[in-house]
Amino acid sequence: MIRILLPAAALLLAACSDNDSSSNAPTASAEPAERSGALLYRQYCVTCHGSGAAGAPRVGKENRLYWSHEVEEEGFETLVQEAIHGINAMPPRGNCYDCSDQEIRNAVIYMLQLSAAK
Ligand code: HEC
What are the UniProt keywords, alphabetically (predicted)? Predict the structure, then answer.
């Protein structure tokens, strides 16, 4: 009886420690890499913010005063929240449904950089 149980217990222990070591190993299913603001802007936001379509405030240095004013009056965080949740004709996440909050933030930062807003 004891002869049979002991090897079984050893096997169980071995199995456990195997599991432990594999959970420390890097997993293949890591988070998808965060996309840059420049990429997302060109893919989603420029449609409206490049041309002023749908009444969107245009991005660019000629609109520097507008964006600087927005940052000053509303604050950067508010602009990010508006971009995430949408406001009036601005669709939530600028229609980038799989964009993370951080990715939307990147896109807003990029828009402000393009506009040379402070
Ligand atoms: C379908 C057109 C459209 C798309 C696409 C779009 N926007 Fe907008 N956006 C608007 C409009 C219109 C407004 C103005 C909303 C208002 O204040 O009435 C706006 C406003 C904003 C504002 C706030 C400006 C302010 O005055 O407070 C930010 C920030 C913004 N958009 C970011 C983005 C980002 C980032 C993307 C891309 C991920 C994007 N938008 C894509 C139409 C669009």
Answer: Electron transport, Heme, Iron, Metal-binding, Transport
